[in-house]
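A student in our group prepared the protein record below, which I am reviewing. Thanks in advance; the entry in question is below.
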Amino acid sequence: MEEIEKMILELYNNENISIGVHGTAMLPDKEEKRVKAMCSKGIMCRYGDIRRTVALQDRGMIHAHGNASLEELMQYTYKKYEKGYVSEMVKEDKLVRYIPKEIDLEQYSFLVGIPKEMQTTDKEIFSGPKERFAMEYAKNEEDLRIGGYKDLEGRPINPQYIIGYYKNGDIRTFQYNSKFYGFQNKEKENALPELDLEKIQKVNEEVRQKNEEKIKKSTQELGKETIEEQKDTKEKRKIFHLFDLMNRKVRMNQSQTKEVEKNE
């Protein structure tokens, strides 16, 4: 078994971390600039729940993916056969026009690892607020014509949760991400870093404690709200009682006045 496969197996069986995979397609680039930028800046997620873009091993099925097996994590090929469309400039004498051009894309699979106790909707899972971004290519000629691929909105999944990536479903091409929180400081250039199992456990425990504090705080706030509502209800009852007494007194006075007038 290759070194990377052993590492994925170890993470897959670790009770303190949940790993998943995100597949995407990109324009051919020998230097892999955009892929490396995603490892550094984060994977853009257009949803509030990362399960809609990351197939995690243990977070349930959503949009036909999820509950990724060990084999899927090491052989993921989502979007492998997708085509891209870009506008190619064509010059004819003095006339310049742009025509659609179909391009064979390269597929990349990003391995993602988050603390087991972390929810896929936690704001901490993202490294920033929503922002505008654009794809490199359109998915079809219609998308290219209207420019829908240029005006997208999403939030970056924190790069510290990106383990690394591999190309076209071939785990042997794996490149690790030095920002991943579960790696020890690397000792050798280009060598796969060792996992920091103590830190993975520590971070998961910190998330668990934060979750407990959130629940405790929510319960306390709910209790305060209930007390305030009870106070408001009591005050309202007092006011209604006073109004009722006043109305009774007014009706009594009116009744006495009418009785006097009748006797006269």
In short: The longest helix spans residues 197-263.
